[in-house]
Amino acid sequence: MNLKDQANVLRREIWREKPYYSLDAYFKNTFGYKLYKVSLNAGFTCPNRDGTLDTRGCIFCSAGGSGDFAISMPDFATSLSEIMTPLSDYTDKSVKPDKIAYFQAFTNTYAPTDKLEVLYREALNKPEVAGIAIATRPDCLPTEVLHLLEKLHQEFFLNPKTGKKFIWLELGLQTIHEATTAYIRRGYPLSVFDEAVSRLNAIGIPVIVHVILGLPGETKADCIKTIQYLNTKNIFGIKLQLLHVLRGTDLYTDYCAGKFSVLTKEQYMDMLVDCIGHLNPDIVIHRLTGDGPKEILAAPDWSRNKRDVLNTFHHEMKIRNVYQGKFL
Ligand code: SF4
Fold this sequence. Notes:
Blueprint: H1 3-14, H2 23-30, E1 36-41, E2 71-72, H3 80-84, E3 99-103, H4 113-124, E4 129-136, H5 143-157, E5 166-174, H6 178-184, H7 190-202, E6 207-213, H8 220-231, E7 237-242, E8 245-246, H9 250-256, H10 265-277, E9 284-287, E10 297-299, H11 306-319
Parallel strand pairs: 1-2, 1-3, 3-4, 4-5, 5-6, 6-7, 7-9
Antiparallel strand pairs: 8-10
Helix pairs in contact: 4-5, 8-10, 10-11
The structure holds iron/sulfur cluster.
Iron/sulfur cluster binds near residues 48, 49, 57, 106 and 137.
């Protein structure tokens, strides 16, 4: 057994016997129990939709702003507590902080900071909320928003009296390749992502990066380059997502016109296993596939059965004897 394989055996304890560092393992190691995400639509928009950068949005983005399963907030500033209350009984003093308030739909730092602060505090002050995850774009993190995040991080995470509630930032990168970036209309260059990660690192906010596998024109080697690039960054987690084609998007129009094909299950498994083999073993994997809303999912059809996708993935990792970081 070489040194790398020996290190992998030691890691298996941290990874809870999986061949990769799953979010579940991280939760159990950190909290001693599983945490559950509550996806929220806080009524934001996005500069890629409101005309600031574009009005069409990213080419793959649904009308729900990539938050189709999120709980809608009828009123931006006041309704979070009403929506989240049914999740448990807040009058019970022994309530376990096992929820993550996930600000998911659209761009969740794209508003005046006083409104953001009200919203984030609303979630952080709930006794059953262990922390918040904020999905956003790296070009929507101006200095005043970073100051707010730093203040909340100090107040809720670094102050033991508040129960070490975390604040995570999720950045939608998708790819490092500029040609694909232009095609998907992401709307910012890689240098903006780099700067955002550095600034979030400087204030101690953990960063999770979204990557899409199977984007039109990208090969497995291209996806591995994106992973290798992220290995050089100080990031906490990664969300790997299969490219879904959703009805009503411009990507769907191109798909119907035969401009590209989606991955087969076998191709995705091959790509995913190799990407994980190239991923820094300290990065926590928050997602392995992603599931598009079934009623508007056009392709790939095989992705509807998430359980089958995950079972096939675990089988592939085993028969190919791959673990996270093996190919580094
Ligand atoms: S940045 Fe996010 S919300 Fe905005 S258009 Fe792109 S995917 Fe949709």
